């Protein structure tokens, strides 16, 4: 089963994965039409199989379509168009429309992140300039994630991922980026509350880029 928690930037980068938002609902409806009529009753399996189908069609990034805010389907994510099988699958039509909207919302979020990453090119040399750019970018990205997730349950996991993606975008090895950001955050962010400014500053300053 594919989960969005472990997506690398190479897998999530919209620049390398073409996408036509206009055709998404048709793709989702075609998936449902090809399923056995009683398959919808096993809602978790239906969601899992839709995830596999979307990832096959569009790329692994599509696994994030059900990464809902708060305590939703996967939980702690940035998607508001989908909640969970209980609330988003009261009928096949509702499920199909919500799934299509959720995939488009997730894609739009990735595109916003990519644009912001590109606005802050990380210098390859000069540690002082490198940290200055990192500091500015990280503060903006944390604020973006807080706003997109509503700082709900476990929002900080996606925040850690986004900061790691930014570093990976600018050629920091993926494993190195994840480890460094994870150590910098180190339990300083909490569920259900946005981080105070001093905590954000502390987290950013804890990661000194070589």
TrEMBL record:
It comes from the Bacteria. This is Uncharacterized protein. It comes from Labedaea rhizosphaerae. The lineage of its organism: Bacteria, Bacillati, Actinomycetota, Actinomycetes, Pseudonocardiales.
